[in-house]
Write a structure and sequence with these properties.
14 strands, single chain, 7-stranded antiparallel β-sheet, metal ion binding, alpha+beta, 3-stranded antiparallel β-sheet
C-alpha cells in the first residue's frame, strides 16, 4: 500500500482510551523437551504436568516431546508474560532430568521414524488428535513437527470496530469484517516482523536431513544463510505441501475464506489417496483430503473462534464470526526464559492495532496477495542483505526505508496505548525496533550468528547453554505455595477429566471420524452473527 494511503489513528481512539484497555492478548509457546545433553526427549509427557488432552495451560503440539504452554487472556503485555513465566517455572520444576529447548529450530533429533508423535489417550477425541498427527508425519515428515514458535493471540473490543468506522458486511458483520481487514494488512506488513524478531538464521544438519539444502557451512554441523532472519518460516521450515501450495485462501471476506477452507477439508488429493487412511490395520491419516482438518493449513496468521469438543473450526467461525486473531510467525527469543519479552509483546500490540486501523483494500487476484507473500519469503532468507529491495505496489523500495516509514506510522498507536496504560513503555518498544532498522547487527538473527562466531560454537551447543541457564533461572525462582497447589490440582483434575472422556465414549473411532467429517456438510449453513 502506498505510504500516502497510511492515515493517523482516528480521533475517537484518543477520546476513548478505555477501548484500548479492553484489548486482550494471550500466548501459546512451544518448546521441545530435551535431556541435559540436548537430545530430544523420548519420554512420555510427564504425568506431573497433567493430561495433554485436557489441561488448559500445559499440553503438547505435534510431537510428544513438543510442549505447548498456554496463557489465559490478559489486559496487559506485562500480565500475559508474567503468567507465561509462572507456567514455565512450574514446568521447569517438574521436568526430571530434562529441560525446554529455547530455540525455534530443533535440538539433536533421532532418526525420522523415532521422533515420537504426540499421544492423547484412547478416547475418540484423543485418537483424533493423534491420528491427525500421524497424517502430518505421512504428509510432511516428523522432523518438521519439531520446529517450535510463539503464537500471539489478540482480540479487540466490538466497540473498536465502530470507532474505526469498519463497514458491516451483510453476511459476516462488522467484527469479522474488521478482523479480515486486519489480516490483510498483517499480510502486507508481516515481513517487518521477520526482520525485527526472526531468530533462526541457522539450523543443524540433523534437522536438514539431506545435502541439497542450499545453506552454507558456519561451524561443524551448523548451516546458515548469511542474511537470513528466520529459516523456520522459510521453505526449509514450515513448508506447505504441493496440495497446500495450490490453495489460495481469500482474506477479502469471511464467507469466501470459509468456503475455500471448507473445500480444502472436503476435497481428496491424489497423492494422499494413494497413501490411504490405513496401513496394517491402523489409521495413518484421518482422510485423504487436501487438509485433514482446518488447522493443517500453514499460515502466518489465522482468524480464530473458540470451538467446543468435536466442533469444526469452520462451523464455529460460520456461526459466530471471528473472535480473535492468532499470529503464528514469531520465532522463540533465545535470550528470554519464556521465549518472548514484554517489550516484544508491546510492539505486537501496537503493530496489530495499526493493522486494524489502517485502510485495508481488498486483495486482487481473487483474494490472494502474491506480492506480499514474495516480500515475506525474501525477508526470511535475505532480510539483512545490504540494500535489499522489496516490492511495494509494483515499485522497489529498500527494506530500511519502508520499515522506517512503517514504524513512523505505528508510533502514534504506541502513543495511544501509552495514554491508555500510562507511562512510555509502548513508545520505547517501537524505538528499540528502529535501532534494528538503523543497524541490522542489532537484529536477533544477527546477534545469534555473532554469538556463534564469537565463541566458535555451533547452534546446538549455543542453544544448550542458553537453555540450561534459563532452566536454572526458572527452577530457582520459588513458586508461591498457593500457585504450586493450584498447578498440582489442575494436573490431577486434567487426568481425571481425560479418564471421564475415555469412559464416556459410546461409539467406535471409525464412526466418530465419519461423524466428524459428516459435520462438514452443514458447516456453512448458518451465517456468522456479530
Amino acid at each position: 500500500m502506498p505510504m500516502n494511503l497510511l492515515k493517523p489513528p482516528p480521533a475517537p481512539l484518543a477520546s476513548e482510551p478505555e477501548l484500548l484497555m479492553q484489548m486482550l492478548r494471550g500466548i501459546e509457546k512451544e518448546g521441545l523437551r530435551v535431556d541435559h545433553s540436548g537430545k530430544l526427549a523420548d519420554t512420555p509427557h510427564p504425568a506431573a504436568l497433567g493430561s495433554a488432552l485436557t489441561h488448559d495451560s500445559i499440553t503438547t503440539d505435534y510431537s510428544e516431546a513438543l510442549l505447548e504452554l498456554i496463557t489465559g487472556t490478559h489486559g496487559s503485555a506485562q500480565d500475559v508474560v508474567a503468567e507465561l513465566e509462572t507456567i514455565h517455572r512450574f514446568v521447569a520444576r517438574n521436568l526430571r532430568d530434562e529441560l525446554i529447548w529455547n530455540q525455534s529450530m530443533p535440538a539433536q533429533l533421532p532418526a525420522e521414524n523415532e521422533i515420537p508423535i504426540a499421544w492423547y489417550g484412547t478416547s475418540n477425541t484423543g485418537m483424533l488428535k493423534h491420528v491427525y498427527r500421524r497424517g502430518l508425519a505421512m504428509r510432511y515428515g516428523r522432523t518438521m513437527q519439531c520446529i517450535a514458535g510463539i503464537h500471539y493471540n489478540l482480540s479487540l473490543p466490538d466497540r473498536l470496530w465502530e470507532v474505526l468506522d469498519m463497514p458491516s458486511d451483510p453476511v459476516s458483520g462488522r467484527r469479522s469484517s474488521g478482523y479480515m481487514a486486519l489480516i490483510r494488512n498483517f499480510t502486507r506488513y508481516s515481513w517487518l516482523l521477520m526482520y525485527l524478531f526472526g531468530a533462526s538464521p541457522a539450523a543443524s544438519d540433523n534437522f536438514l536431513r539431506h545435502p541439497n539444502h542450499g545453506l552454507e557451512l558456519l561451524h561443524g554441523d551448523t548451516w546458515y544463510l548469511p542474511h537470513a532472519t528466520s529459516l523456520r518460516m522459510s521453505d526449509l521450515g514450515y513448508r506447505s505441501s504441493k496440495a497446500q501450495a495450490e490453495l489460495q485462501l481469500c482474506y477479502n471476506d469471511l464467507p469466501t475464506f470459509l468456503a475455500r477452507m471448507h473445500r480444502a477439508v472436503s476435497t481428496p488429493w491424489p497423492d494422499y489417496e494413494a497413501i490411504g487412511t490405513h496401513r496394517d490395520g491402523e489409521w495413518i491419516q484421518l482422510n485423504t483430503n487436501i487438509l485433514q482438518v482446518e488447522n493443517e493449513y500453514y499460515s502466518n496468521i489465522r482468524p480464530k473462534r473458540t470451538v467446543g469438543r468435536g466442533e469444526r473450526p469452520v462451523s464455529a467461525l460460520a456461526r459466530h464470526g471471528i473472535e480473535y486473531v492468532e499470529v503464528r510467525c514469531l520465532d522463540i527469543d533465545p535470550w528470554m526464559p519464556t521465549g518472548i519479552s514484554v517489550e516484544s509483546c508491546r510492539f505486537m500490540d501496537a503493530f496489530l492495532l495499526f493493522c486494524a486501523a489502517q485502510s485495508s483494500p481488498l486483495f486482487p487476484e481473487n483474494g490472494f496477495c502474491k506480492r506480499s507473500n514474495n516480500n515475506f519469503g525474501t525477508v526470511v532468507k535475505e532480510g539483512r542483505k545490504p540494500g535489499l529491495l522489496l516490492d511495494r505496489d509494483g515499485q522497489s523500495i529498500s527494506l530500511q526505508d519502508w520499515g522506517t516509514e512503517l514504524l513512523d506510522a505505528i508510533r502514534p498507536y504506541a502513543g495511544l496505548l501509552d495514554q491508555a496504560h500510562g507511562g512510555a513503555s509502548y513508545a520505547d518498544a517501537v524505538a528499540v525496533q528502529q535501532s534494528k532498522l538503523d543497524d541490522s547487527d542489532n537484529t536477533p538473527s544477527a546477534r545469534l550468528l555473532a554469538a556463534l562466531r564469537k565463541d566458535n560454537i555451533g547452534l546446538q551447543e549455543f542453544t544448550l547453554q542458553q537453555s540450561l541457564r534459563h532452566h536454572e533461572t526458572l527452577s530457582a525462582a520459588p513458586l508461591p505455595a498457593e500457585t504450586q497447589e493450584e498447578f498440582l490440582g489442575k494436573a490431577k483434575s486434567s487426568i481425571e477429566a481425560q479418564a471421564r472422556i475415555e469412559q464416556s465414549d459410546k461409539i467406535n473411532f471409525e464412526t466418530y471420524v465419519a461423524q466428524y467429517q459428516e459435520a462438514l456438510k452443514t458447516a456453512l449453513d448458518v451465517p456468522a452473527k456479530n
